[in-house]
Fold these 2 entries.
Entry 1:
Amino acid sequence: STHILHSLLFFFLTSTTSLSSASSIGIDASFLSCLSADIPPRLVHTPATNSYDALLLSSVRNLRYALPGTARPVVIVAATEPAHVQTTILCGRRHSVRIRTRSGGHDYEGLSYASLDPRQRFAVLDLAELRAIHIDTARAEAWVGSGASLGELYYAVGAASRTLAFPDGSCPTVCVGGHLIGGGFGSLARKYGLSADNVLDAVVVDAQGRLLNRSTMGEDHFWAIRGGGGESFGVVLSWKVRLVRVPETVTVFGIRRFRNQSAVGLITRWQDIAPALPWDLYLRVLVQNPQADFVALFLGRCGRLARIMQRRFPELGMTRADCQEISWVQSTIFIEFFTTAKPLEVLLDRSNKPGYYLKVKSDHVQEAIPRHAWESIWAKWLDEPGTPPIMLDPYGGRMGSISPSATPFPHRNYLYQLQVYSFWFENGTEALEKRISWVRGVHEELEPYVSRNPRAVYVNYRDLDLGTNGLENNVTSYEKAKVWGEKYFKGNFKRLAAVKRKVDPDDFFRNEQSIPPLPAA
Ligand code: FDA
């Protein structure tokens, strides 16, 4: 059935392209001719090119933004060299075509390839081919292209050394570009912080088309790209990152407990226990009726892990029999697929499996949610087969020891983050409305128990319900953007806007939730 869905999408896409291309051919000819001066024609895909649909869909991860009626790019430039990015930006400015940069296309709200405004003319700058990875084991550093997937990076690090790693997220097809620019949270965050905390340098093309590195862009600009969210501060081509030390052998486990056994009580206990565990231990929970799965990565051997668990969380009943001792790179597969039986090469698979429709809402939790609230949330919202998961990811450890202003990501002192991850495969507005109202309903139910003033959200878990931009004198309104901006960035939002004023005062790089230039006092 997923194959049928894909064919239908192709049909919708091709049948709507003829309309949009007919109206835009004249307008965009000058932009195309500008591109053609420096970019080979095979890298420039318009709705009139056969390759356009397949390329557009190649990394669409949320089918809500591939539906008919969604504004689509007038051109996709599949850059293979930095100069192609520079040319696209300069031509875009000259001919009033805005850019949407796409690395892996995982944006929860499709902002890297779609626009909410049906009249907007934009080009997609696709960076999938800019994905070289160079590992320097002696210095424990790497240069990584934005188009590299997390899986490709994990594979390369694992192949270079069994005792090096990089702290990144769990999904191997997410790409480095969008991930690092929004922070990057994963199973090593309690030990080493976010991906963005481990960035040492970057190569960026700015709004003037200049190629900059850390020293030429300056520390404010460099601060902003380490968590300030996608698109606003130029196109990041590549990142120099610090690799971190891990033992040759790490330990993982996955323990399932059912609602009719002990799951609710365990989740309630988990909230205080997991964020206070030793930094070497990451223990997340996935709650999905009828069970809760407790999934752990420990940077050490099974014996020590079992002793820690027996002392700190005896109720879970973890024993040595639950352990699997593996390498760190294998643990990245376990965290994603709950098995160690897959070959490492699964990390290299970038193919876009027939996708799903997606709406995610997320929160940060400061004080444990009481047991009775978990009971009632489960009874009211989760108690049906096939309801989507709620994911709980612990903070604490290194996360809590980094200053909230060290990077734009301010959420350092919470117990954990929570995602209500609604995805579905059925087509049609009925399913869409039902699923979206479900996720919004759970979100409303959680309100008394989560962070407030602001209700804090991680920018990489993009949610357009928080608010979208509007213009004032042809630049993005700062006042309007504050509504969503302070939820993602708290006090760092103003500093991000000040950096934006400095590096992109004309607001060329913009989308529904891009950082606005701070108005002059
Ligand atoms: P995409 O290409 O869609 O880009 C996202 C945003 O960044 C867009 O606004 C885009 O324009 C901009 N952008 C992309 N590349 C850029 C560049 N080179 N320069 C400037 N701007 C750029 N997160 C997390 O922290 N931990 C996790 O475990 C997961 N897991 C996860 C699983 C799944 C299935 C999804 C769909 C998402 C996640 N995420 C996540 C969220 C993920 O980190 C977030 O969506 C990233 O922005 C995705 O980066 P991509 O490059 O894939 O997205």
Note: The two ends are 56 Å apart (CA to CA).
Entry 2:
Amino acid sequence: MTKIAYVFNGPNLNLLGTREPQIYGAQTLADVEALCQQACAAHGLQLDFRQSNNEGELVTWIHEAGRAQAEGQAAGVILNAGAYTHTSIALHDAIKGAGATVIELHISNVHAREAFRHHSYISPVAKAVMAGFGVKGYVLAIEGLAQF
Ligand code: DQA
């Protein structure tokens, strides 16, 4: 059975392409989705790609992914939680509670940026962390997820 690879994007990632292109690059979220589509096809996964500016919606999606994974229908989640990475105990608890395999992803190298980006509530409950490869990181993370 083809397993689902969830790619969840948090706040402001809908602005990719125009948002601080010197940091996040010129590609739009639709471009990222197309890259993910190709990578999933290459690794025998079925893509479910979403974006939300709402913390609670991301929590609900992680619960959904955890249930799908428990039922053998999903490989896991690639999560770019955006700024919620640095603030959200709710997302930390959701990942722990749902038992989903989560790869934390950042387009930029958050550790080379402002100090407030150095702490992540996601990392302690993530299976792996990807940061600083630009949008190519999504492709690399899908390859990694396929190998777990
Ligand atoms: C980000 C890094 C976060 O610090 C920031 O708030 C984002 C994007 C990244 O992809 O590099 O919104 O997660």
Note: The helical segments are 21-24, 29-42, 55-70, 89-98, 136-147.
